[in-house]
Design a protein that fits this description.
Elements lengths: L5 H10 L9 H8 L6 H6 L12 E2 L1 E2 L15 H13 L3 E2 L17 E6 L7 H12 L3 E6 L6 H13 L6 E2 L31 E5 L2 E7 L3 H5 L21 H20 L1
Parallel strand pairs: 1-3, 2-4, 4-5, 5-8
Antiparallel strand pairs: 6-7, 7-8
Length: 267
């Protein structure tokens, strides 16, 4: 499984991933958001150098074998989320929007994977066995309910995770929990999901060997990361589909995932 190089980890440790001196996150976000980037532009960025995933932050989108799972419901979500992380931290990122078959050995080339859908999901025996081995070796899985109102996807989480982690029980991800107390403090000091009406419901996590290795968000974070229209001068990061273009809420979701990715790669 690919992990960050010692050089990258030194960068993380030495900088604390703070913002550039003399600027606030709001100032940097404003400057960043002046950059216009369409979905087509994002795809064209895949040069030979960018195709090399070594020593880069990445999150691969899972394509389950079950054909009824709408796994690619938010096609621009991961490219734009990773773009935002790169701009906020200066760390290199790797983008691949092809669905990942987790029944293959390709799974072990990745540190973080992501599954979202509106409907019930399930993994076949080979997928579950491979995911169980991958989690045991240090992988981290992020599950995201695309429906955002409690759905068949949400009710699938516990039984499917129990096939990978037989003794696993969901734990609410709360600030007072010492195992995850730093998760939303890596770069931004943000409230935890569920701590205020604007911020949705609490996330959950599952432990394996005392490590949080599966996270579940009931808040449809992917729909907050994506864009539905190309950016423009009046709306530099595009209009969000599921969250009505509410950039305040979307900014919080970008901050959450930036913190979370860095937590996963350094804990």
């Amino acid at each position: 499984m690919k992990t960050l190089s010692a050089v990258t980890l030194i960068i993380i440790a030495s900088t604390g991933l703070t913002l550039r001196a003399g600027t606030t996150w709001a100032e940097r976000a404003a400057a960043m958001n002046r950059v216009e980037l369409s979905a087509g532009d994002a795809a064209k960025r895949a040069t030979e150098e960018e195709k090399d995933q070594r020593n880069k932050l990445s999150m691969r989108l899972i394509k389950p074998a079950l054909p009824t799972v709408d796994w690619n419901a938010d096609p621009t979500a991961l490219p734009y989320m990773l773009y935002q992380i790169n701009k906020r931290t200066d760390l290199p990122v790797y983008v691949d929007t092809e669905g990942l078959d987790v029944a293959t050995d390709q799974l072990f080339d990745h540190t973080v994977t992501y599954l979202t859908a509106h409907v019930k999901f399930s993994f076949n025996d080979k997928e579950s066995e491979n995911l169980a081995r991958w989690l045991k070796r240090g992988g981290t899985l992020f599950l995201d309910d695309c429906y955002n109102r409690g759905s068949p996807f949400a009710t699938s989480v516990r039984p499917e995770v129990s096939r990978m982690i037989p003794s696993g029980e969901p734990v609410l991800l709360l600030e007072e929990d010492p195992k995850v107390t730093d998760v939303f403090k890596m770069t931004y000091q943000t409230p935890f999901p569920g701590s205020a009406p604007l911020y949705g419901s609490p996330w959950q996590y599952f432990l394996l060997d005392d490590r949080p290795c599966v996270f579940f968000s009931p808040n449809d974070d992917g729909c907050g990361w994506e864009i539905s229209t190309p950016p423009s001068a009046s709306n530099p990061i595009g209009e969000g589909i599921g969250h009505g273009g509410d950039n305040k809420q979307r900014e919080m979701m970008y901050q959450w995932v930036t913190n979370w990715m860095l937590f996963v790669y350094t804990h």
